[in-house]
Amino acid sequence: MEGKEEDVRLGANKYSERQPLGTAAQSQDDNGKDYSEPPPAPLFEPSELSSWSFYRAGIAEFIATFLFLYISVMTVMGVVKAPSKCQTVGIQGIAWAFGGMIFALVYCTAGISGGHINPAVTFGLFLARKLSLTRAIYYMVMQCLGAICGAGVVKGFMGGPQYQLLNGGANFVANGYTKGDGLGAEIVGTFVLVYTVFSATDAKRSARDSHVPILAPLPIGFAVFLVHLATIPITGTGINPARSLGAAIIFNKDRAWDDHWIFWVGPFIGAALAALYHVVVIRAIPFKSK
C-alpha cells in the first residue's frame, strides 16, 4: 500500500524529464550550469506501463482535450448561428476561446501529463526525444477520444439538425483557397505553435525564469490565439489533428472528410520542422561536445 501511495504522490514527476511542459527550474549540474540537459527518452519504456502516473497522464490528456473541444466548438457554433457577427464574439472571440482554453488547460495539466492536448505537439516532442513512443501513442489515442467525446457533447446540446446546419465546427478549406493554401497555412500555423512550446519549456529558460510559474502556458495559449486570427478565414484553423478529427467524426459529412488529410499532414509536417529547428538551430544539440 505504501508503494502505491508513493507512486501517486510522485505522479508525473516520476518521469519529469520526459514531460517538458512543467515550469520548475532544473538544478545545477556538476559543471556549474544553472540547468541540466534532460537525457533523451528511450524509444520504448516498458516500466511506464506499470506506473499509475502513466495512466493518469493519459486520463488528463483525455479530459483536457474533451474540455477544449467543448468550449471551442460551442463558441464556433454560437458565432456561425448568429444572423450578424456583431451579435457574437466574432472571429476574435473564437481565437480567444481556443487560445484561452489552451492556456488554462496547459496550466492545469502540465504537472501531470505535460499538457500536450494536441497530437502534433506530442509528435514534435517525440521527435525531439522528450517522451517515449509508448507514451506518445497513448497520448494521441486519448487526445482523439477526448476530442470525439467533446464534439459529441456539443452536438447533443445543439441538436442534430442544427448541428449539421452549422457544419459542426468541422475544419475544411474555405471557398477561394486551394488545398495547397490550406496545407501551407496548417504547416506554418503548427510550426508557430510547436516552436513556441519548445521555446517556452526549454531547460535554460525554465531555470532562468523559475520565479514565474505561469510562464510556459501563457505564450503557448497566446500562440494559439494569434494563429487562429491568421488562419480562421483559410481553414477554420486546425493545427490540432485531434480537434479536426473529433469535429469531423461527429459532423460526418463529405465536406469535412474531403479536406481532412490536410489537418493531419499539415500539423505533423509543421511539428517536425519545429522540432528540427529547435534541436539543430536553436539548441545545436547534435553539435555539442559530450
From TrEMBL:
What is any Pfam family matched here?
MIP
Assigned protein family? Belongs to the MIP/aquaporin (TC 1.A.8) family. PIP (TC 1.A.8.11) subfamily.
Indicate the transmembrane segments per the record.
59-82, 94-117, 137-158, 214-234, 261-285
Q: Say which species the protein is native to.
A: Helianthemum almeriense
What molecular function does GO assign, one term? channel activity
Q: Where is this region: Disordered?
A: 1-40
Organism ancestry = Eukaryota, Viridiplantae, Streptophyta, Embryophyta, Tracheophyta
Topology relative to the membrane? Multi-pass membrane protein
Q: Name one GO cellular component term.
A: membrane
The name on file for this protein is Plasma intrinsic protein PIP1.1
Annotated localization: Membrane
Q: Which keywords fit this entry according to its UniProt record?
A: Acetylation, Membrane, Transmembrane, Transmembrane helix, Transport
